[in-house]
Amino acid sequence: MSEKKDTRLENIQKLRSSLKTKSFRTIIILSVTISIVAICLGVSLYMSSVRRSYRSNTYNMSLTASRLIDRDEVMREASEVIKIYKSLSEEERQLLIDKHSDLLKRFDGIRGEGFDRICELLRLIQDTYGGKAAFTAFLDLENNRRVFITDSDPNDSFCPPGSLDELEKISIDDLMNGRQYLLDDMYGIPALPATTINMSPYGYRCMAGTLLGTIDGYPVFIFFDTDMNKAVNAGIAFMWVFFFVMLILILLTQKISLKYVDNTMVAPIKKLTDAAEQYINERGNPDTKGGYFNEVDINTGDEIEQLSKTMQVMESDLDKYISNLTTITAERERLSTELSLANKIQADMLPNIYPAFPDRDEFDIYALMDPATMVGGDFYDFFLIDDDHLGLLIADVSGKGIPAALFMMICLIVLKNSTMLSKSISKALATTNEAICTNNTNEMFVTVWMGILEISTGKLTAANAGHEYPTIRRKDGKFEIFKDRHGFVIGSMRHMKYEEYEIQMEPGDKIFVYTDGVPEANNSEKEMFGTQRLLEALNIDPDASPEQTIMNVRKAIDEFDHNEEQFDDLTMLCMEYRGKKQ
Q1: H/E element holding 369?
Q2: Residue 299's pLDDT is what?
Q3: Residue 101 or 116, more confident
Q4: Alpha carbons 33 and 14: distance in angstroms, whole number
């Protein structure tokens, strides 16, 4: 039961994340977004056009009314209202906003024959031009108020003489220059846009006014008011019709688009996906016939068809690559095994058991070789030539890897054997140079520092064939570079001679020799370790044993290069002369 539920959930998840579902969601979102924008834009343009039309018509009606009415008679009535208005205190004027009946009675005296004629004419103009209301009023620009004078329906107490309302601040310059004065009004709620909720009993209205004259700084206007409810309702109806039309178009577009996307994109991609899954599942099967993408027939004429052809080529190339990789991997494993064996052989050829001479207290010696690759070209050796002579050797072969390792073994054997036979460093180096130069077709060479310590006296006879300078530490002193005489490298030129020099070692003295991989170790900024840091590492603990001295240098290099890739072999040898015990 649990497996069926997991399978069902997995199928639902695949459906949700499928290309077809994503295409469906994208088309729906785009269609709805475009429809909403289109509806809003259409309604906005429609209502904007209606608004401009009503404003223009209403203003023209107010302008016509201003030409038909008797201005002198209106100005006389206005003068009487203004006179009473000016006599009122600010507190009493505030009460007029709420049409306080006792205060409004003060304006009843203006109701005469002239007042009735004006009201009758306003009513006639209103009925003739289809307006909602027509009235005269003056503006208190200082307090942003409009005070009513006469109304087209004086019996309705809608705008009795003296009643007033508050307006937004209006520019006196615009009014006095005869500019159009328009008010979109819903008596407290803006008439536009059409989505505004109609909370006024009078609905949506457009109001315009024309200046008749000015009395005591109060401009007198005739206002004309038109009903916009039909236009607004038509706009709302238009919005709904437009919405349903767009909804139908969305559904049709969605169906057509999905079918097109499914045929031209989803189905071909699904074929490629199925072929890829089959290829992955059967790739390791020796009985597989292959050619999975060749069986996919896609003729869309676009990038998907090109992708199908590319996948066919990729399948063929990948099969060839896997076949070659299998062969190469087997060969690499064989080579890795051989390199590992070569590394062991090389390591076994160098002294690696310590203490090296447990029965000899006159000296202590330790060496380390860390190849940059599995096998390296550096080597060292120390060996007893006889009971009173200790041979010391460190060398660096040009190049790396297996060729350097083979060359290193030849040099090591020849050098050691020559030294054992001649007991002379200069002769051993010259003999080795002649032997190497004889058949050195690859022009490889090796740098060598070699010494023979006379154990009983501490006399160290040494020679340098192009190798790094050794470092010497005298008892109770510090390690310092000893700049000895250099001869030419071995293996590069025949008939070379090498000069020996002597160093008198006293009990407690140490000699430290190394290959160029130590000072040339690089960090991430390509900065070299250098001989100065080498001396600092050696002198961290000058009294340390040869083993600890080498470990101190190795630690300093690791801290310097932060485990950067090692490009050269690191080889070091340190010997402390102790002398015979008294």
Answers
A1: strand 363-370
A2: 73
A3: 116
A4: 27
